[in-house]
Amino acid sequence: MAPPKQLFFITGNKNKLAESKAILGDVVDLQCQAIDLVEIQGTIEEISLDKCRRAADAVKGPVLVEDTCLCFNALKELPGPYMYGKSFQYEESEAVGTQGLNDLLAGFPDKSAQAVCTFAYCEGPGHEPIIFQGRTDGKIVPPRGPTNFGWDPIFEYEGKTYAEMEKVEKNKISHRFRALEKLKAWLQEA
């Protein structure tokens, strides 16, 4: 199969789109398309595969979907794939907020966590999606840095929160970078 020259990235999040374009560079023409997709409950992988199939059916062509999770080791990887559900909204104006996410671990000595990004690619309706996943180990800390991109202010990697990092620095170590590097290598080999 020849790699696609253009991919529809199904997201309404401009920050995710900008990071993804910066990391993928000119390997593929990434076009944004916002589609409200139903998300099933399940594992990170099950959710990503199902969402990708639905997106490919809706677009009738090659698509890329992304699911980002924050997994607290003390809570057996919760909130995980439910990070963006109504119970664990990360936005400051919503249910829990970044300070609330930090507070979830107040009674636990283990503050370690994993940032997980799963991209799923499908060449079109009827095709089986392929998963590319990246994980970054870190820890949960009280919010530090700008609050303009999800839970970046509470996820610390080697002494800095994602929010405290310059975009270029974050894009070299993040969970999204690790997943997109796998996708990029696959696209270049295909």
From TrEMBL:
Domain of life, per lineage: Eukaryota
Subcellular location: Cytoplasm; Nucleus
Binding residue positions for Mg(2+): E39, D67
Entry binding sites for ITP: 11-16, 51, 67-68, 149-152, 170, 175-176
GO biological process: deoxyribonucleoside triphosphate catabolic process; nucleotide metabolic process
Record carries keyword Membrane: no
InterPro entries (UniProt xref): ITPase (IPR027502), ITPase-like_fam (IPR029001), RdgB/HAM1 (IPR002637)
Listed EC numbers: 3.6.1.66
Cofactor(s) this protein cannot do without: Mg(2+); Mn(2+)
Keywords: Cytoplasm, Hydrolase, Magnesium, Manganese, Metal-binding, Nucleotide metabolism, Nucleotide-binding, Nucleus
Presence of keyword Cytoplasm: yes
Single Gene Ontology MF annotation: metal ion binding
GO cellular component term, pick one: cytoplasm
Reactions listed under catalytic activity: dITP + H2O = dIMP + diphosphate + H(+); ITP + H2O = IMP + diphosphate + H(+); XTP + H2O = XMP + diphosphate + H(+); N(6)-hydroxy-dATP + H2O = N(6)-hydroxy-dAMP + diphosphate + H(+)
Cofactor binding note: Binds 1 divalent metal cation per subunit; can use either Mg(2+) or Mn(2+).
Function: Pyrophosphatase that hydrolyzes non-canonical purine nucleotides such as inosine triphosphate (ITP), deoxyinosine triphosphate (dITP) or xanthosine 5'-triphosphate (XTP) to their respective monophosphate derivatives. The enzyme does not distinguish between the deoxy- and ribose forms. Probably excludes non-canonical purines from RNA and DNA precursor pools, thus preventing their incorporation into RNA and DNA and avoiding chromosomal lesions.
Subunit structure and binding partners: Homodimer.
Similarity-based family: Belongs to the HAM1 NTPase family.
NCBIfam families from the UniProt entry: RdgB/HAM1 family non-canonical purine NTP pyrophosphatase
Name of this chain's protein: Inosine triphosphate pyrophosphatase
Natural source organism: Lachnellula hyalina
